[in-house]
Every structure is written in structure tokens, then in C-alpha cells.
Amino acid sequence: MSTRLTHGGRRIDRSKPVTFSFNGKSLKGFQGDTLASALLANDQMMMGRSFKYHRPRGVVASGAEEPNALMNMGEGGKFEPNQRATTTEVFDGLAAKSQNHWPNLEFDIGVINNSFARFLPAGFYYKTFLFPRFAWKHIYEPFIRQSAGLGQAPKARDADTYEHFYFFADVAVIGGGLAGLQAAKTAALSGAKVLLMEQDPFWGGRAAVDGGELDGAPAGEYVARLVAELEAMENVTLRTRMMGAGVYDHGYLLGYERLRDHAPELAGPRHRLWKIRASQIITASGAIERPLSFAGNDIPGVMLAGALRDYIADYGVSAGDRVVVVTNNDDAYKTAMAVKAAGLDVPVILDARAGGGGAAADAARAAGIRVENGKAIAKVTGGKRVKSVKICAQAGEGGVLEEIACDAVAMSGGWSPVVHLWSHCGGKLVWDEEHAMFRPDETRPPLGATGEGFVIPAGAANGVMDMGVGLADADHAGRKAVEALGLTAKAVKLPDFEQAAEAPLEPVWMMPQGAGPKLRMKAWLDYQNDVKVSDVQLAAREGYESVEHTKRYTTLGMATDQGKLSNINGLAVLSETLGQ
What we know:
Blueprint: E1 3-4, E2 13-22, E3 25-31, H1 35-41, E4 46-49, E5 56-58, E6 70-73, E7 80-84, E8 95-98, H2 112-115, H3 124-128, H4 133-147, E9 162-174, H5 178-189, E10 194-197, H6 207-210, E11 213-214, E12 217-218, H7 219-231, E13 236-239, E14 242-248, E15 252-258, E16 271-283, E17 287-289, E18 302-304, H8 305-315, E19 317-318, E20 323-327, H9 332-341, E21 349-351, H10 359-366, E22 371-373, E23 375-382, E24 386-393, E25 402-405, E26 408-412, E27 415-417, H11 420-423, E28 429-432, E29 437-440, E30 455-457, H12 467-484, H13 517-520, E31 524-526, E32 531-532, H14 533-541, H15 547-554, H16 567-578
Parallel strand pairs: 2-8, 9-10, 9-16, 10-13, 16-30, 18-26, 20-21, 20-26, 21-22
Antiparallel strand pairs: 1-19, 2-3, 4-5, 6-7, 6-8, 11-12, 14-15, 15-16, 17-27, 23-24, 24-25, 28-29, 31-32
């Protein structure tokens, strides 16, 4: 079961309990909790239903990429649908309701669609709704209109107020993780007027969660020192709870700041739209972990490995007592060690790579954790929560070798840089074969009015996943920005950091490699729109070879999360199916 741990939780204040409601039930949390962490602490694994098949869905991520845990929030003039539980901070009196079910979350009559899934594949509506012609107006269209959409439409007039704000900066830095902080410091020390924004309520991103030491101190302490230095500079403006929402021509940038979502009792506007002009823009927006595609990977309790680690470190919340870890890279081993350190059980780490992991794998074995190389998950069993995993060989067709009881699965399929802001003004991407990711192509940047680039990626957003190298890359971004302004970049001493040797990632787009039709029909790519591996393969067989056509035929990446978790895996499945 998911529960609150007796220790840990850097983001919560256990001396300040809060009371909130979920589907009318009163629950307890702490100040600093997100709605997702507070629900998990109360063993509320199921948080919604999927759009097409109404399958039970739980939280899978810990940030803005979350596709499942969408809520109807508030009441009356404060009502707002489709709010992510992972980015909503709890407060006394918060009222949240789950979406896309009737009559209730536990018993949803719409789940009958799941029983007819084989008759509702990708594109079925293009074939079904054509005939007979009279049925469109009297049967199909009324039914579609009744079923369409997520959440409820607000009925009362919005009771809140909003404002917009103009701001001018030499350098705007989007992302307050370690790379963003370092880039801002480099630019600020050179005399530039700097605006630094972070969408979360805290600075440092994943640095403190992932561990490591900088200049002999924990990464969290180095982050605090960086923030203190920036706060003391008169030429630096710092903003948390503020998202870089769009980058446009001539250095025009939109920032979306949430002022009172976490404390509605405060006076003033609820949100503020910043209209920013910046000569140089640094995108330090980080990277998003990718899921793995295996049968049952949507069952509540199956989560991204990094997210499960976040909930333990940031909120003192465990998603399960027995956690199976499945991965194709070394990063997920950190989650296994975090689970073990929290006093919980890790019965096995399944590493799809035949050669296994590097130093992280050796550390896991030394901690008494069983590690299996070349293995995969054939199927996760369970309905409204995980019950067990069936293990198979990754190179096989799904023949079950062993079944292990567990109540959570931590999966990691690699990382994808957050590149949409780089792409807004025409920045191009390049496929990084070694790390299996799209990253910014700095030889083809977004161009300003003078024909020069004005957007600079930094850190993980630039495809640099090593913390030490990422700091150097962020410093380079800061120097490049101030030099473009005609200023002299000052030398900045970077901290000492030693990165443990890691075994290379091996791309895994389907698990197991030779999964048959029954397994592929339960391996999910797009959680919100219920797009499966088999749907993308069907689209390819039916002639939809263009990425854009496949997207529309299957609805891959067309949900509110806009493919943050699904698109890379979906593109890879399409590529393999077409042999391209």
C-alpha cells in the first residue's frame, strides 16, 4: 500500500497539517504536499479513469508531464477542470474530484468499453460512423458529444482576478534547476540584468533528489548557496511558481505566474501573465523520464522511477511496500537504493540490457538487492492496483519465467530533454543515437531579427545528463548570452563533482522485444487517450506512414499532456514497424 513514511520529506512541514477533500472524503496532508503526494499518503492509488476505455489510472509522474491524475478543482466561481494533482499544492479546504467516470470512481459503467477493446482499435470511428448515413445525426453524433471532453465545463462566472505585467531583461533564464541557477549566476556576475523563473515552488530541480556532492557538500546545500548569492544581487529577479509559457520572435517571452493557487486566502490577483522582452533567453527546462511499454503498464502503482524517488525524498511518501524496478539505464538504480534506504523492499531490479548496469548495479547488489540482466516485464497483474509482475527475457516473446508479488513498479526508459521552448521559434532538433533522445541542434538555433541566435539551451534541456558536465554547459550558456550582449563574461569557478561511471543506455521501445498481439494490445503509449503499441502498428499497416497522419489516426500525443510521455516511444514504434 502507499503510505506516509515516518521520516523524510524535504518539501513538507509536518508541523503544519492541512485538511482537504477528494470526491467528498476528508483527508489529511501537510503544507508543502502536492495533491498527488497527499493522495498517495492516504493510500489513494486510483485517481481517475482513462478517456476511451475508462481503465483505472493512478499517478505516473511527479510534475507537469502527468497524464492521468487530472482533477475537477474547487466549487462555484472557483471551479476549474483538468488540474494536475502533481502540480497542485494542497491547502486547507481544497476540494478535488476525479474525472471521466459515472456514477463514481470505484464503479464506472464506462469500463465496459474495455471489454470491447478489440473492436475499438485506432481509427475505428473513421470506419464505423460512416454507415448507415442516417445514423450519424440521430445516433453517432449525440453519443460522441455526450462522451467527448475531459472534466466538467465551469458554469459559474470566474470569481478570481488576473493581471498582466511587462518586464525587460538582458537575459531570461527558464528553469531554476542546477543548470538554470548556474547560468543565471554566470550572466549576472557579468553585469547583465537577469530574470530567473522556476515553475515549481522550490529551486534546484532534481539535484537534491538525485544526490551527489558538489565541492564536498550535498547538492541541496550547493543549490541553497547559489540561490542566496542570486538573491543578494540587485540585477537579478527571481520567481518561483512561474512557467516559461512561450518564446516568440524578437526575444518576446511569456511567463505564467501562479500567485495564490497555493494560498487562496491571500489578497490580490490569482495569476499574472508576464510579457517579457529579453535580448537572450536560456532554456534550462530539464528533461522528462520516459516510461517503458509493457502489458499492464497503466495499472495504478506503475510509476516513473524518478517520480517514485521524488515522492520518497520530497514528500516522505512511499508508493508501495514492495517495489519492482525495471529499466534500460543506470538512473533507475538510484530509485532502488532510495526505496531500500526508506526501509522498504526491492525484490528485484530488471535490467533489460544484457550487459547490465555499471557502478550503480554493483552498489545495488552490495546492498542486497537482486539484479537480473536481460530481463523484462511480460505483464503486470492487477486491476485497481498492482498485485504482481510476470518476468520474461527481453529478447524473447514473453514466456513467463517467474512471477513476483509487489504493489508498485518503478520504470525508466531513458530521458527526453524538454525542447518545446527551443522549437517555438524554429530551433531544430537532432537525434542523439547514443542517448536515444532528441536534443537541440545548436547549429540551427532560433534566429532573431539580426540573423543571430537568441535562445540558448543549457544542462539536461541540451541533452547533458551528467551533473558536472551540465554545470559546465550551463556556465557556457551564461557566458554565450552575455557575450552576445557585448559584455565581458567573467570567469566563474565551478564546483568539483565526480560522476560515477555509468553503463550506456540501450533503447527499449517494447517489452519484451518479440511481444505477441495479446501483450501489445495491453502495452500503453498514450495513457490519457488510450493509445497502445498495437494501435500505432495497425496505423502503419493501414498505410499511415507519415508521423502527422499516424498521430491523428491514433490520437497519439493529442491529449492535454501533448505527448510529453508518449510521443518518443510512439515514434520509435512507428519507425520499427515501418523499418525506417
